[in-house]
Amino acid sequence: MNILDTIIAHKRTEVAERKQQTAYKMLEATAAFQLPVRSLAAALQQPGSTGIIAEFKRKSPSKGFINKDADVATITGAYTKFGAAALSVLTDEPFFGGSSADLIEARKNDIPVLRKDFIVDEYQIVEAKSIGADIILLIAACLTPAEVERLAVFANSLGLETILELHAEEELEHVCAATKIVGINNRDLKTFSVDIERSLRMAEKIPADKIKIAESGIDKIEDILLFRENGFKGFLIGEYFMRQEQPPLAFEAFVNRLKEKA
């Protein structure tokens, strides 16, 4: 199996176990479940928005630990302070070193928060809302078009927004009315190799009424400016900041340079 297949197989087992441990009613009873949902779509379209969805990530399957001892409160607080449009928080523990606790801490910031995980079941969407997530990620590479539509409609019924992530042209059929935000991943999820041109090649084939996001492999101001010229509103960046010695300072400097060139 490739990396993605391994992750999904583990995720299905993990979700089945969590269903046995915590009932839907317990998730729905959390204080966070009642919190108002903050809109990523609105944040990305706000005049003057950086469009940056700044990610908190400790490790990846392909590179191991990137920033093992990173403090979620410090880093997400700095992302918010210096102009992130939204936050992305990895909640997968085995492969990315994340946790629900990381997202709960990040939710203390007053901008939208994406639960970055491998969603394969409605249970995870209820779980996402129960820890304060505003947005979930649906990855086309591990879902059928029918599954994407079902899960997106369910997320919308809870007030959550979705990002549909694509990484190949054949996945365009996964786009549906319920997926208003479409992300194009420059990283091939089966090999984890990065092709920064992927988003640009696919951009024109995304329906005009969708909000487009470029994901992965973005580490230069010029990348963002080029994506903006091609109609992208959002830019999910994680590893570039997280691998720096001081992620808060790296993010502040990046945003300042972006404002100078924009």
Count of separate DSSP helical elements: 11
* Overall pLDDT: 94
Largest sheet: 8 strands, parallel, barrel
In what order do the strands lie side by side in the largest sheet? 1-4-5-6-7-8-9-10
Strand pairing plus helix content: what structural class?
alpha/beta
- Element string (H = helix, E = strand): HHHEEEHEHEHEHEEHEHEHH
Shape: globular
Q: Total number of β-strand segments?
A: 10
Radius of gyration: 17 Å
How far the N terminus sits from the C terminus, by CA atoms, comes to 43 Å
What does this structure look like?
It is a single chain. With 262 residues, the chain is an alpha/beta fold. The protein has eleven helices and ten strands. The mean pLDDT is 94. It has helices spanning 3-21, 24-28, 40-45, 72-81, 100-106, 122-130, 145-157, 198-203, 221-229, 239-242, 247-261; strands spanning 52-56, 59-60, 64-65, 86-90, 113-116, 135-139, 161-166, 181-185, 211-215, 232-237. The protein has an eight-stranded parallel β-barrel with strand order 1-4-5-6-7-8-9-10, surrounded by four helices. 39% of the residues lie in helices and 17% in strands.
